[in-house]
Amino acid sequence: MLIREAIVQGSADLKFAGIESPRLDSSLLLAHVLKTTRTALVAADTDTLSEKACAEFCELIERRCSGECVAYITGKKEFRGLEFEVNPFVLVPRPDTEILVEAALEIGAEDQGRVLELCTGSGAIAVALKYELPKLEIHATDICPNALAVATQNAARLLPHGKIQFYQGDLYNAIPTQSFDSSQLYSLIISNPPYIQSHKIEKLPAEVQKEPRIALDGGFSGLDIIERIIEQAPDHLVNGGTLLLEADSEQMDNIKSLLEQKGFFSIKSFNDLSGLERVIGGKFEK
Ligand code: GLN
């Protein structure tokens, strides 16, 4: 079978299974099997596939048909031009979350600041920030040790010259206690925490449901973790420090009130790629 034919066949199978972007996914999976890029595939589309490659490709197409996302199948996902390792212990980094990094670069991350990322997962946000501003001192936490193993690998591979300090634990409790003096406060706290309402999880697309529930489930209101992050943020921020959060557009009014109650000002939101509010943040003055 030719490469071109394999892509068409894979794409037809995925379409039949109701996958939304069959052609793209088919070529991503074939590129993965052949250890090449999608662009290189186009140039070689009249080459013949070996039987072994063909069998491997069929297997991956079957996995995709059963609802597993391309990122978990290939073990990687691009985020802000960097290739992150992912597995089912971490949420797949979303294009929408790139807006959170952009917001940080716009209003929160100073060249030499100290940054705390909560719920780091694959480490995509922390690594992308450190990649952009190498002088930042970044601490990142996650409650899940298996997620931190992924984040640590990503940081080691993508930032050979810069270190991120990773801590395991529940939100701020993860930070070692010796960090609690005023010189150890952060200029930016950033997080894409779990924010989906518990009862909505089972209605999410099959592939999202294969992601770790702990990274998605924000409790009854969806705001359980966000409330805790906002409540304790003032203890960890310098004067004029910034808190930035990803959330659902429907949660923004509530989050704005929570921020105001805690003394945050200059509260601003940022829209995602579909024009919905996806990121909110503000500054804190003691
Ligand atoms: N944006 C993700 C989704 O809709 C949710 C991410 C999260 O809960 N932090 O699937």
Short description:
With 286 residues, this protein is an alpha/beta fold. The chain has helices at residues 3-16, 22-33, 38-43, 51-65, 70-74, 95-108, 124-132, 145-158, 206-209, 224-232, 252-261, and strands at 76-79, 82-85, 114-118, 137-142, 164-168, 186-191, 237-246, 264-271, 277-284.
Core attributes:
single chain, 286 residues, alpha/beta, 7-stranded mixed β-sheet, two-stranded antiparallel sheet, 11 helices, 9 strands, elongated, binds glutamine
Q: What report would you give on this structure?
A:
The chain is an alpha/beta fold and 286 residues long. Helices cover 39% and strands 20% of the residues. The protein is built from eleven helices and nine strands. It has helices spanning 3-16, 22-33, 38-43, 51-65, 70-74, 95-108, 124-132, 145-158, 206-209, 224-232, 252-261; strands at 76-79, 82-85, 114-118, 137-142, 164-168, 186-191, 237-246, 264-271, 277-284. The strands form two sheets. The protein has a seven-stranded mixed beta sheet with strand order 5-4-3-6-7-9-8, with helices on both faces. Strands 1-2 form a two-stranded antiparallel ribbon. Strand 8 (264-271) and strand 9 form a beta hairpin. Helix 1 (3-16) crosses helix 2 (22-33) and helix 7 runs parallel beside helix 8. It is elongated, with a radius of gyration of 21 Å. The mean pLDDT is 95. It binds glutamine. The site of glutamine (GLN) has 8 residues, from loops.
